[in-house]
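Notes continue from the previous slide.

Worked example: a multi-chain complex. Inputs as given:
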Amino acid sequence: MKNEITLSVIKADVGGFVGHSAMHDDLIEVAKGRLDSVKTQGSIVDFLVTSCGDDLELIMTHNKGVDNKDIHQLAWEIFEACTEKARELKLYGAGQDLLADSFSGNIKGMGPGVSEMEIVERESEPIIILMADKTSAGAWNMPLYKMFADPFNSAGLIIAEGMHAGFRFEVHDVKANKRIYFDTPEELYDLLVFIGAAGRYLVKSVSAKDGEIAAASSTQRLSLIAGKYVGKDDPVCIVRCQGKFPAVGEVLEPFTMPQIVEGWMRGSHYGPLMPCAVQKATPSRFDGPPRVISLGFQLANGHLIGPRDMFDDPGFDEARRLCNTLADTLRRHGPFEPHRLPMEELEYTTLPQVMDKLGDRWEEIPE
Ligand code: F6R
Ligand code: MG
Ligand code: MG
């Protein structure tokens, strides 16, 4: 009999400590307390609560499948309880990502970020959960491409029998609300036409050619939900490793390159995505630079054996140093592009108000 297990990673910024830089321990305790009792009742198999910057990350395993109302409602209620605690402590931006007044069946589209997958646990099931702060949902496009389609990153694409056939990418156009699938390596160039534009086309999932899910990301774009800037998406992603999937080291390798992502100060600047240990994911310099953390687990009948803090490794020191060097260069551009996002990308920040205010003062240039 197949024994399916669902992994749900649901996250929200419900209040920062101090400013937008980190998480207060009391919020983690509130979330843990609630999940502990739900676990005792048997509604979930296991959980881990952590944070990346000002984002509260709920990692849960259960047997209810993806998009399950009970699980989504549970996460929503935890975020509400944590918001209450954040209000009590007067933390910054309490309830920031809870864009709806009350829960309405599926937490997607209500503010929090969601990444889920239902799997049949393998003989041994290593997984990596990636979580980022001060950046947007498109931040996983390049890393997922490298893990699953770039032989310069993943040696297994060439020399591992199980990976040689390539993978299938599910890409969402989050502006038109459409999706498309690309097979790699056959359609590599077509895939790149779209996912290179990571503000609009997001890699939602990757599967092996036999259909088995390998990776799933959160694609919620807060600004598209709210119609204005209300904070950055700060996405999460689940990746299965080893065997027919990339090795743990192939999943982490893309983060040795200081990828330039959108986010950072006021969600309006490009900056390098710095891989760091959970304890170091507390962005303070110019509210950044953007961070990515990775927790590794072995699943054992749905139990999360771990975590291992995978970027807490001197092997990533040079990546961090490169990020700081790049951060210096970009910061020196101040309000100029390409540090500041281009006009179209600033559409959802305060810029429209400034433009409106000055609208009348623009006059025709005489011939
Ligand atoms: C970026 C972020 C911060 C804030 C900035 C201003 O994702 O969260 O950089 O945008 O600190 O915050 P407010 O507008 O809340 O004062
Ligand atoms: Mg915040
Ligand atoms: Mg955040």
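Summary box: Residues 122-352 form one domain. The longest strand covers residues 291-300.
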